[in-house]
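From the pipeline queue, job 12 of 40. The input is one protein chain; the requested action is below.

Action: predict structure.
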Amino acid sequence: MHRNLNRCLEEEGVNNSAMLTIDGEGRYELRSNDLLAPMIKAIQELKQQNEELVVFNKELAEQNGSLRKEIEEVKSSVSDQIELKIKSLITQKSELEESNLNIALEK
């Protein structure tokens, strides 16, 4: 644990921290009271990030819902247009067949 803490402190640019020392025999000593303030700050930062992510996630969920609704509306509109076009083509075909029949009967 102490080595991990030392690595974390170094990664965060904290050098010569009195909270973690190494004695003459290479053993780590931790003054845990000095660790409390940075831990509280880290927790506060994580809480703020989490709150921001919750808001962002809510916004994305709302956008997703809107997009899904829009997609369904487009699908319905396209389906309606296809249905109308098919009916129109069937009507045109029927009229053409009737016209051809009338021409054939006139001959």
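Job complete. The first helix runs from residue 2 to 11.
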